[in-house]
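Task 17 of the worksheet. Students: predict the tertiary structure of the chain below and write it out as structure tokens. Keep your answer in the requested format; marks are given for formatting as well as content.
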Amino acid sequence: MSQEQNLYSLRLLFDSKQISSGELEEKVKDVLAEFLPYVEIKINQSSKGIEFVLKGTLEVVDDCHHKINKKIVETDNLNFQRLLDEAGDKIRQQAYPILAEIEQLFRVFVSQAIVDIFGFDWWDNFAPADIRNKVQPIYDKHREDGASIDPLECTQFDDLVKIITAETFEWSEDRSLSAADLLKLLHDCDSIAELKNKLEDKIKKFAFWDIFSRFFEDTKKWEKIKRDINFVIKERHKVMHHRPIRLGVIKALLEKKSELLTLLDSAKPELSEQERTEARKDIQKSESQWLPQLYESTLQQNSQMLSQIKGLTQSTSQNNLQILSQIKGLTQSTSQNNLQMLSQIQNLTQRIRQQDSKMLSQVQGLTQRIQQQDSKMLSQIQGLTQSTSQNNLQILSQIKGLTQSTSQNNLQILSQIKGLTQSTSQNNLQMLSQIQNLTQRIRQQDSKMLSQVQGLTQLTRNQNLQIPTQIFALTQSVIQQNLQILDQIQALNESTLQENIQEININPDEHQDLDIQSDINDSDNH
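Model answer:
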């Protein structure tokens, strides 16, 4: 519902197999012509069907909904679903408290009136059996939950009205009289007038409703309430089961409530003792009328049920016989199939045993051949092993000779390396002496340059010339770098000289002994 303008929506889904969107649009415009300026209508085709949406005020949507139901849905017998009815929801919300108040007023009056006439045990003595059976599970459930409740409070409003409005009679007006009925009437009556009164009593209708009328001076108003209650029940069903309801029903329910309240206020607080006695006599008379009817009705229902049960029993027996015959046929067929399958299984078993014996003989023959081949291969492997051992001895002797030759070559190479090392050491000493001479010369030249720069500086000062201090700083930096380079060269030469001396001090005889011992150990392992 739109909150700004209090607009209400109605959404219906129609069967697209019965009507097209174009046809529906034409019918809606024709039926709702007077309301078109006041409503918003949309018709959309979807995979589910044709969706009709209408939006307007509460009164307008209520009238449009009613016209659509009467002049489109019912006239053309269309299938549809009511997806949304906001106007109906609003009307039902307004109707519910009115209906609840009417029901409660009626319940209180009926309960007090029945107890006043029949006492508190009226439920067990006078309530119809079908309604007692319907109410009992509800009553027991509330008792289990620990609630103290009266059976009448568990009775639905429809059943409550049924209790007080049900009419009973001894004979129906269209009853056919038998000879026995006429003889009994003539025996009980002394005149035609008495016979007439007896017949009127037989067909006279009686209801609890007549007993409740004793509480009112104007019984006609009580009869009108009877009609009003039926209207209330019909509208109550619409509200409780979410069915469409008109806005005008609210006004009608308010009127019914006012009339009922006025009537109940005019009721007598209680009956006199004479009125109670007359009411009880009426009840006893009604019991003599409706109990035989109830008995006959029960007998008829029981006979119908027995005939139905008998028919079902016979049908079930026939079905069971058919099923048994089918089972018997299936059993025989299954037994024959089982015998055939058993003979086939025996034949297959014999064949498998024969094939197993053949395969066993073949496997034994193959096993003997494999054993013979294994013995041949073993003898060949032993011969190859002996031949391989002899070859290994020859190879070992060759390796030993090569090892001795290699050791001699290593000694020669070691002596040559020693000679080269000594020669390299002498060359390094010569280079070191040369580098020292060069270093001394560079230092001498640097000292000369420094003295010359100082002399030039003094000469320049004498001549009042300013020489930038940067030249002097640069000269000093160059001299320092030269000195660092010379120190690095000297350290490098000293390191190289020490390494050469260490190599010369290694004992060559020790290396030779280690190599020969390793060769001998390898030969023994092979």
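Marker's comment: Residues 289-295, 506-526 have pLDDT under 50 and may be disordered. The radius of gyration is 65 Å.
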